[in-house]
């Protein structure tokens, strides 16, 4: 039995609630592996074995140890029932759709960590925003991208069922981090001759909300336009 | 800090996955108050202080003690930070919209238990289905309703944010149970001169999924039609 913990929601980011609402110290109580972003949508975060790496919009990767750093949105878990995983030659679309089908993930939450060499990888990194914060859809229009080839590292992230697609990123949400921790971000495309790693399927998804935060409590969510906005911002 | 625990999803019921996937014994480990339905969508369940009451489609209320009874869908919690609550003269629409506004519940999960006299209450009770199970939308077309007047009891149930509206019932989902435990069901309408009770706001929502169940793993969810179907089935 394993739990995926999430703080904040994708709907909050869409509504421009980009201020950090949980400290890194608190987040790490709920998991040692995960993904997230910092206060103001500052970069792309990968957490591996309790170590926190943030790729900022300059393309630099920072090893973050200040536990007072805050996050508006993050997902973490403790590994509990990992199973070994191997994938062959793939691009991003075939990798993700093969994983979903082969392991029957459509209706569950899952995590993968796939290690090896990527022949090519393209990532994007969210740039830190200033108040008054725009919504995620606006930010998504102006995100720097970076490419690397013949790079050794890990593809890490979560699968979430479509019905949770306004709460978190529906489908696959994957980041890359190189073995030397110098290149990281949200994956837009990749190609590989093969990767191996681990898969964890969760039976529980714990959604934590910043209920003491007045801006969160007063937030207006337009559910009608939310799904279309998320499609545009996340894909 | 309080957690609302849910087993199963509304999307599963919509897809006709009505077989029980968790025992009552397991469910009660996660809460002593709550709502649910039994295997085959058999009735409307209210849980109060660990005691389980099921209204069946004949209108009878059964005090259930068999912990092997299974449920496809249920929400429970342990009271942790309840605040006192008082409401004046109301019908169902004004009661629920006033609660949402007064306590700023739009974006959070919450529970209310309101005790007192209802001048009028109309309830519906889901009738047990047989395999092959229909979806919730079909079941909703043929549900017996019951009415009572000048009846003393409790209005109990949950509020969920709209963005969780395919996972659980978005907005208010309230059941009634009379003080003498002889009349209970899912509330369609009510009127009262005043009720008093308790409100709990949750900072965590824990969604539990039956990941070992092959029918759940293979379930096809048509997300495009899901929201419209839920509107029709639940309102």
TrEMBL record, chains A, B:
Keywords: Acetoin biosynthesis, Decarboxylase, Lyase
GO biological process, any: acetoin biosynthetic process
Pfam families: AAL_decarboxy (PF03306)
Biological or metabolic pathway of the protein: Polyol metabolism; (R,R)-butane-2,3-diol biosynthesis; (R,R)-butane-2,3-diol from pyruvate: step 2/3
GO MF term list: acetolactate decarboxylase activity
Catalytic activity field: (2S)-2-acetolactate + H(+) = (R)-acetoin + CO2
UniProt EC number: 4.1.1.5
Family: Belongs to the alpha-acetolactate decarboxylase family.
Protein name: Alpha-acetolactate decarboxylase
Source organism of this protein record: Lactobacillus corticis
């Amino acid at each position: 039995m394993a739990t995926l913990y999430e703080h904040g929601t994708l709907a909050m980011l869409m509504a421009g609630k980009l201020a950090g609402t949980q400290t890194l110290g608190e987040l790490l109580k709920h998991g040692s592996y995960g993904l997230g972003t910092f206060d103001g949508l500052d970069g792309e975060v990968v957490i591996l074995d309790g170590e926190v790496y943030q790729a900022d919009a300059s393309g630099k990767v920072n090893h973050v140890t200040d536990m007072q750093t805050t996050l508006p949105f993050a997902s973490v878990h403790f590994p509990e029932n990992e199973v070994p995983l191997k994938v062959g030659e793939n691009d991003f679309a075939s990798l993700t759709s093969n994983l979903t089908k082969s392991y029957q993930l459509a209706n569950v939450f899952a995590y993968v960590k796939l290690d090896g060499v990527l022949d090519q990888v393209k990532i994007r990194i969210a740039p830190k925003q200033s108040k008054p914060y725009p919504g995620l859809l606006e930010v998504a229009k102006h995100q720097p991208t970076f490419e690397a080839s013949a790079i050794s590292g890990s593809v890490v992230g979560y699968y979430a069922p479509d019905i949770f697609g306004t709460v978190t990123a529906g489908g696959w949400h994957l980041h890359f981090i190189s073995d030397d921790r110098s290149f990281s971000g949200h994956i837009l495309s990749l190609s590989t001759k093969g990767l191996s790693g681990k898969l964890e399927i969760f039976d529980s998804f714990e959604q934590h909300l910043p209920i003491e935060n007045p801006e969160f409590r007063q937030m207006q969510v337009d559910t009608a336009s939310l799904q279309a906005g998320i499609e545009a911002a996340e894909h």
